[in-house]
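tool_call: predict_structure(chain=1)
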Amino acid sequence: MRTSQVKRDTKETQISLALCLDGGEVKVETGIGFFDHMLTALAFYAGFGLTLKAAGDLNVDGHHTVEDVGICLGSAFKDALGEKKGIARFGSAYVPMDEALCRTVLDISSRPYLVYDAEMPQDMIGSYDACLTEEFMRAFAVNAGVTLHMACLYGKNSHHITEAFFKSLGLALKQAVKTEGNAVVSTKGVL
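tool_result:
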């Protein structure tokens, strides 16, 4: 089983996370309802087991919590993959959500990078600041060692755009972590 556990305690957040790339229970508690919904969708569509409890300075705003969860999830993901032997490495997915269509393409390359192309028509989705989606994706990509390209091709509703992004990330990760052999998929022999 490809698993990892991460704890992060700062003056702004306290996070405990357990990740299994091969499935399991999904239970997420961050104090931000919409973010919980998005992380649950990501784990579900990726086929991951994810147990996450986060407490953050939500009296300030959700930024520290969302970004630090991205850091922890990325770190756990990288750790759970180990030497990356046999993984497909690449993944991509399009997800429509009503009027919105989003695309995610990624490479588990050990070369972290984020290209994020989306305008959020509404600033807030419940208590979740729509601009935090980009912060989460950046924190995840950098700490996971993933080259991540995300684009909203069109959409008029921030909820739909954000949900399509999280679901497409899950689907792309599911493809990329699938075991197809026992060699590292790289002409260099290492990722």
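agent: The beta strands are 3-9, 13-20, 26-29, 49-56, 90-97, 100-107, 113-117, 124-125, 128-129, 147-154. Proceeding to next step.
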